[in-house]
Amino acid sequence: MSKLLDRMSEFLAHRKGLLPIIGLFLILVNLLIQFIFPGNFLATTNLFLHVGLIVAIFGLMLSWAL
User: Fold this and answer.
1) Is 31 a member of any domain?
2) Which segment of 5-14, 36-45, 54-63 scores lowest on mean pLDDT?
3) Residues 58, 19: contact at Cβ < 8 Å?
4) E strands of 2-63, at which residues?
5) Which residue of 20, 41, 57, 66 is 20 to 30 Å from 26, comparing CA positions?
6) Predicted model pTM
């Protein structure tokens, strides 16, 4: 577990904007799902919106710390 965390921190230290971009992409995917599949489980729960928001905020906090 420690080796995985070390490798991830080294990878993300050089790519500080990767997690916020992934979070924004997930939020846009949620917007598209709202229009394409309006009655779907993913559209009613806004799953990608919530996951994307958490990933983007975590990425901003992590990039500030690195």
Assistant:
1) yes
2) 5-14
3) yes
4) none
5) 66
6) 0.81
- The structural domain count of the chain equals 1
Q: At what angle do helices 47-65 and 18-36 cross, to 10 degrees?
A: 170
CB-facing half-sphere around the CA of 25: CA atoms within 13 A: 6
Range of the structural domain that residue 50 is part of? 18-65
Sign of CA dihedral 42, 45, 48, 51: negative
Give the mean model confidence (pLDDT) for residues 20-42. 92
Q: Give percent helix, percent strand, percent coil of the chain, each to the nearest 5.
A: 85, 0, 15
Residue 8 lies in a domain: no
Domain presence at residue 7:
no
